[in-house]
Every structure is written in C-alpha cells, then in structure tokens.
Amino acid sequence: MQRQSRLPSEGFFWARFFEKLPEQPTVTTPAHRHTPEFLEAERARLASQPGLGLAGLLVVIPIAVLFAVGFGGAEGSVVVFSPLITFALPALAMVAFWWEDWPGSSLRPGWSGLIDALLVAAAGIVLAVIGQLVVGRFDAQGIFDSDPGPGHAPLFPAALPLGLTAFTAMLQLTLVWEGWPLKHLPRLLAGLMALSISWGVALIVHYMAYDLPAVPDSGLTMQEGSLSGEDISALLAVCGSWQIWIFLVWRGWPLHGLQSRWIRIVMGNVLVVTGTALAYALLSEAAEMEKPLIVACAAGFSSAGIVIGMLFEGTFRSHLSRPQERVITLAATTVLGVLLTVSLLAYARDLTWSEATAEAWVGHVCVNALGLAVILHVAVFHRWPLDDKTTDPGQSAAR
C-alpha cells in the first residue's frame, strides 16, 4: 500500500499518539467495505507488480545475507542474530501495525524507516536482556558473543521459546483478534498494551510449560515443564505458518466477509488453533518428522508467504481476491517454501555445526533473515528508495 508523500508536522506527530485503530484490519477488510479511492490505489499498486517486487529483491537479499552469515559465518549468525531478532519482532509488529510507523511516520521517507528501524533494534536488545533475566541472569557476553564460554548465560537456544511465544501471541492479537479490545484505546497505548499482553502470555508458557535443563555454571536457571524447547518452537512455527497463510497470503479469507466481529474472532482463533494442532500432529506423529525439521519446513512456508504476500503483494490476485487467485497464490507460496527449505538444508548440512544445527539455521534464515528483510523493506521503509511514496496513514496494515 502506497502512502501519499507528506512533510513532517508537529500536529501530525502528536495526532498519531491519540488516534485509534480501525474497526477491522485493512489487510482483512473485504473489497466492498473499502472506499473507491482505496480500491483505485490498490489497483494501481497491483499493476506495478511483479516488477516492484523483483526490484525489491535487490534490497531484500543483501539484508537477508547479512543476517544469515554476517556474524562470523552461519553458526555465529544463528547463535547471535536469531535471539536478538526474535525478541525484536514483537516490537516491529507494534511499530508497523499498531503505531503505523510512529514516530518515524512524521518524517520524510528514508529517515522515517531509519528511525523506526533503530527504535525496533533498541527495543529488541532491551527485550533480549529481559529474556535473558527470565532464563538466567544478565550477561552481555551471553547476548553478543557466539561462543561465550562456561559461566555465561547464552540466549541461544534457551531464550528462543520465550521470544517465539511473544511474537506468535503478538501476531494472534494483531491479526486474529483484530486488536480487540485494545483498538478502543489510543494506538500508542494500545500497542504498548499489546506488547505487554504478548509478553505476559510468553511468561505464562515459560513458567508453566517450558522444560529448561541447566547444567552447573551455565548461567541459566533450571525450569521443569512438560514441553521442551524443541516442542514449543515446532508448535509455534506451525502456528505462525497458519497465521501467515490465512491472514497474509489469503488476506483473511474465509473470515473477512463475516459481519460480526466476535464471530470473526472466534472462528479465526478456532481455525488457527485447530489447524496448528492437526498439522503438528500429522507432521510429528503420522509423518514422524523430527521437531527441528518441522521448524525448518514451517519457517520456509512462512517466509515464502511473507515474500508472496508482502514483497509481491499477492501478485496473482486482483483487489477482488477471486477463488482461483487464492489457489494460485497458495500454490506459489508452497512451491517457494519447498524450494527455500530444500536448498537451504542442502547447503547447511554440508557445514560443520557445534552450538547450532542445520535446521536451526534454516529457520533463522527464512524468518529472521529473509522475513525480517522483507518486513523492513515493505512495512518500515515503504520500499524506499525504489518508491519515493509512502503509505497513506491508516492503511499501513494493507502493505
């Protein structure tokens, strides 16, 4: 979704503070409920694809490669970048979808994205420190060193389930719950409360279900629970793939046409939770797939959904989102997800791993590297500098 260019203004800056969220997320609002101006802008945007998406790959791929191997190679990158980015993702969702890029939205294109990206990065570090305190004790070397050594508290992999739970809960609250009931609050407060609720869910899961073994002198705190870190990560990865499939690739279909909000919310939660449980059972029990491989495959599908749904804006669809277009878009997402997973696994399994695994790196590359790069390019920088326009205030969820 393209925004009209605007100049910074004090009034606009503080107006974002007091605005409320729309009744239904723009990305899941059916076409007949949009204004003619919105639909015309969407037609123009879709007409620029797939060229704009292909050009965006020139920006996205270098960023993804940096996060994938930029910290001393593949293993160093997954050990250091994976937890930091995972903890930053809920803050990214807050800035992009709840605050609609405030405070950067009051600045010129380019600068707005930079300010928001720096804010998200700072929030990610702060949340990573909090996560480290939850699983152990504060230790800067355990955050920023790929091989901290004995006596330090490494974030990877102990803190990953906590960050993944917070991000999954944030997506569920943003997309499936449509921001309800927080949308009645000013959006700045609503976003902070959404982030707090997501972390509350993550803490509940951590203290009630997470089984975290800790050897002496590890800097970690032992936690007894019914689910291992691999169990939680696999469940959340599958859940994330359902969230992206229904609410990004299919833009809320078949729920978005329901008139009643509470029916949409209930049905959406049932669809995601039931789909996650069935898919997880099929993969882990029927197919006897190992948990790390489930994470890698689900992450591959999710990253493909982000590429198709955001970078290429569902190139195979019109603003009416016809049934055949949904089938084609899902097929394209599935094919791209399989190609990503298979090719990355083939490369990673030829490497030597000590702290991490090939499957963990694939999951990191797909979501934390490629997925984050697409979200930054499209939802934070608004495709700058490829497009000198930004998205219209109030429409950021449809980008």
At a glance:
This protein is mostly helical and 399 residues long. The protein has helices at 10-18, 36-47, 51-69, 74-98, 111-135, 140-144, 160-176, 187-209, 229-249, 261-286, 291-311, 323-348, 358-380.
What does this protein structure show overall?
- There is one protein chain.
- The chain has 399 residues and is an all-alpha fold.
- The chain contains 13 helices and no strands.
- The protein has helices spanning 10-18, 36-47, 51-69, 74-98, 111-135, 140-144, 160-176, 187-209, 229-249, 261-286, 291-311, 323-348, 358-380.
- Helix 4 (74-98) crosses helix 5 (111-135), helix 7 (160-176) packs across helix 8 (187-209) and helix 12 packs across helix 13.
Largest sheet, strands/sense/barrel: none
Please work out how many helical segments DSSP would assign.
13
Gap between N and C termini: 4 Å
Query: What is the 3D shape?
Result: globular
The chain-level mean pLDDT equals 86
- Give me the strand/helix succession: HHHHHHHHHHHHH
Helix percent band: 55-70%
Number of strands: 0
Percent of sequence in beta strands = under 5%
Rg, Å, rounded: 20 Å
SS content category: mainly alpha
Uncertain residue segments: 1-11, 388-399
Keywords:
single chain, 399 residues, mainly alpha, 13 helices, disordered N terminus, disordered C terminus
